[in-house]
Amino acid sequence: MKKTLQKPYNNGYIKVVVSIENNRFSVTGSIYEPFEQDYHRDIDSWEYFGGKYGYAYGGCIHDDVLKAYPILKPIVDLHLCDHHGTPMHCLDNAYYHYECGNKAAFRDHLMIDNYWADLLIERLDRETKGKQYRKLLLANRIYEGLAPIWEEKAARAMEVYNNLIDHYVSIENDLYEHSAE
What we know:
Largest sheet: 5 strands, antiparallel
Number of strands: 5
Shape: elongated
Order of helices and strands: EEEEEHHHHHH
Radius of gyration: 20 Å
Distance between the termini: 18 Å
Helix content: 40-55%
């Protein structure tokens, strides 16, 4: 399922694709600026409300997406998380960041604040029974403490997703992909 939203943005317009495919939340966007013959090929231009625009940039441009559609924050926060709110490769990626000593990546991946990241890292550092035991300890902390919080976030994101059609112009909102371009 995906929904495509577009509206004027800055000097051009923004096109945002919000999807739940393969049981993962995804939000990507594309920015189109006024078409200038000098540096764009004609094939890269699109008509939008009577003007001609060229693709400027796009992808995982969450700052631009949130500036244009702040209501999408609960979904953007779960980008690439599954429908339960669990981050992609949750345990393996979290443990990898822990082993590398990258506290910021560890914290961001688990969607926790510095305080909880410090406590969890400190607990893992104290463990002397080996890597497999530390990984098991991390898994227990994730699934006992964080999974219920992620589940609530996913429910909120689904609520926002399901209500998008009621509040915004949606170009695509069914189960099939359309190629309007």
